[in-house]
């Protein structure tokens, strides 16, 4: 049975008028499991218009009342966690346990945003001049939009929706068309939680829909997460059209292994961070950098032995360490990179190209793969593979390892494993990367800090969630006031000062 999905506009399920549909696959089997309508310009304009209609009244609700909608949403999700995780896993291909984490990390930002009465407080200066007070307000922008990737279909939409609507904006979400069911269900739950219709609209689609959001003057700000080429395109187009934009792109995250690190700890960290979710995480570790030949040899031996025990299976198999890739194109791309690495002279110690999962021969599976002797000039080092492929780049010294991570064009996350506090501190201060883990392989900051990569992993100046998200989704108005009971001064033709 192929399910038929819809857009969610003005609190209603609508198919739209484009007449164009995309297929949603089951990555475990390669079969089509749903059809999703793809919005054209007209469908997207309808969603924008609906958001514009709903926004002023929503912005007028006091912040505590808006926070209660978010709190109610959290309650409504609770009994649905398992069904949402299963739905997410079935469309994405990550394991059900991992899908729970995807949802949980998103809900933590909703929890953060329930603090909006406090987060929105402005500043106040009493008696800035004689009889003059100054205060600032944080006001919503109006209609804002989010364009999100396939790899975290619960977490990233929630990272954007929750702070945006808490601030009093209306939101148009354009989720990935590859796994659209969970964002759609989350929007339904927001409506059930008391969000007025139109404050959160979901339109599915591709470039035409995104371009409409980029061009329409009613859309004040755009948040994007996805691949770097499109992040850059969305950022340059949005800003050229006078919009705020924060656009996060691809990654190549290094894990530096110092000679004093506990290698058993390092191996477990690398396996989880490298192969979890089949490597389809922007914070996945894809490059291991052991320092010194002795560290490298010992690490590679341990990695080979441990990776051989990994179990790849359908995403609903509770014994599976990771499941299939999201689609046929992803499978071809990852296999293609393994071919490229071999041709470039990297040593393919473990080759997942021909993995077959019994009973799931048409699923998009690649086995855990390991390259040794990768060098910085190789494409498998420079480019994002986004699959279960770990590359070992051997560094002669700490400075070389630091230089590799700092010099890479991506700068999302990085980790160092060491027992030496001085090295760790030096590394975290000097490395040219947005998020750093010290003995932590995937340093995704908690909801009340902010998330964002540097260099070609992030375009824009404000990060996601945490205090930056409140700044991104509001603008500051500064009010200077005085209440003289009589006209005490005559006209002043000089620029006023507070002397
Ligand atoms: P993608 O760039 O293919 O798609 C992202 C979004 O852009 C989707 O909603 C898609 O429909 C839309 N889109 C696709 N083509 C478009 C076009 N030509 N014009 C306008 N919009 C278009 O990315 P993906 O494959 O869904 O996600 C994987 C990528 O996302 C990886 O590169 C990964 O590193 C990155 N990612 C980054 C972060 C981060 O925080 N830096 C987080 C998660 C994922």
TrEMBL record:
One of its GO terms (biological process) is L-valine catabolic process. Its EC number is 1.2.1.27. It comes from the Bacteria. Keywords: NAD, Oxidoreductase. It is an enzyme of class 1 (oxidoreductase). Residues 22-479 form the Aldehyde dehydrogenase domain. Pfam families: Aldedh. One of its GO terms (molecular function) is methylmalonate-semialdehyde dehydrogenase (acylating, NAD) activity. PANTHER family: MALONATE-SEMIALDEHYDE DEHYDROGENASE. This is methylmalonate-semialdehyde dehydrogenase (CoA acylating).
